Amino acid sequence: MSLVEDPVGAARSAPDALAASLESLALTSVRAAALAAAEHAGSGDGKAADGAATEAMRIILGETKGLGTVIIGEGEKDNAPMLYNREELGDGDGPRFDIAVDPVECTDLCAAGLPGSLTTIAFAGDGCLWSPGPGLYQDKLVVGRAAREAIDLREEPEQNVKSVAAALGKPVNEMRVLILDKPRHVELAARLREIGVSVIMPSAGDVAGAMFALLPGTGVDMLMGVGGTPEGIMAACAVKVLGGGMQTRLAPQSDEERDAVVGAGISLDEILDAEDLVRGPAIFAACGITGGTMLGAPRYTAGWVSTQSLIVRPGSYRRIVESTPAPESDSAGG
């Protein structure tokens, strides 16, 4: 899988006001978090990486002109350091906006020094992001623009794959579906392989998986299966602005989570699409921590540090390589 940029995407729509005002903040936030987390890559201490990334991101967001409210974060699900729900960041003198954030996606991969970990954030207009309350997991389908009308979470997995294949004009045995390698997906993977589908199963990487399914040229046709709600909300921001297809439904993974969702008066049966999850303008950004097929890891060369980031804004996406002078202690170590 490789990320292929869209050279004509920027011409599809005029720059959105939210993107224009917050793009720099999104990129600065994920870059700071990635550099902080990368110092702990391979340490075996995922909580330290999460904590460092969270604090780096909190500092950047706290200094911004405006006021952002964290609608959903990853720490609550993983019992990790977090930007907590309803936390407000910024000086209040500027735009108000919603935040969905995961300072370190694939914390275990970062701790093990393995490829695949990213830092991710999404911004949307004030009051635009759907909150899942105590719901931590959701069933998801994500596809690119060409198959956006072909998915239906009420149908069986095999039927969804066949419908997407028809929309893409390819035989089912050429379909490539990404599913997280979790015990809950053993049966799903077996069913898809039975009809000839190639099933890609990374150990983690829900947001990256959605991006691979959404963007053209990656070799992934769709994302399927149960993943975290924070990742789902961030992916929905990218799906919304690029015109892809997404359907989700809460899927509690424990009796405690189910009871909490029901107690909060949130439906376990309602199917939501990207328009339901993101009710207005949005942007998404990510930066590589440990490298991989989506974004490279920070690289230190001759006193400089280089990072790879992705920004998704209305009508376009682009990968950005940024180099800045490295802190003296880091540049000395290479």
UniProtKB/TrEMBL annotation:
Q: Per its UniProt record, what SUPFAM superfamilies does this chain match? A: Carbohydrate phosphatase
Listed GO molecular functions? fructose 1,6-bisphosphate 1-phosphatase activity; metal ion binding
* Residues that, per the record, bind Mn(2+) 2: D102, E105, E231
Q: Which cofactor does it need?
A: Mn(2+)
InterPro entries, sorted: FBPase_class-2/SBPase (IPR004464)
| Pathway membership | Carbohydrate biosynthesis; gluconeogenesis
Gene Ontology terms describing biological process: fructose 1,6-bisphosphate metabolic process; gluconeogenesis; glycerol metabolic process
The reaction(s) annotated as catalysed by this protein in its Swiss-Prot or TrEMBL entry are: beta-D-fructose 1,6-bisphosphate + H2O = beta-D-fructose 6-phosphate + phosphate
Q: Which UniProt keywords apply?
A: Carbohydrate metabolism, Hydrolase, Manganese, Metal-binding
Q: Which residues are listed for Mn(2+) 1 binding in this entry? A: D50, E74
Tell me the domain of life. Answer: Bacteria
Annotated Gene Ontology cellular components are: cytosol
For the keyword Hydrolase, the answer is yes
Which NCBIfam families would you find in this protein's record? glpX
Stated family: Belongs to the FBPase class 2 family.
Name the record gives this protein: Fructose-1,6-bisphosphatase
In its UniProt entry, the species of origin is given as uncultured Solirubrobacteraceae bacterium
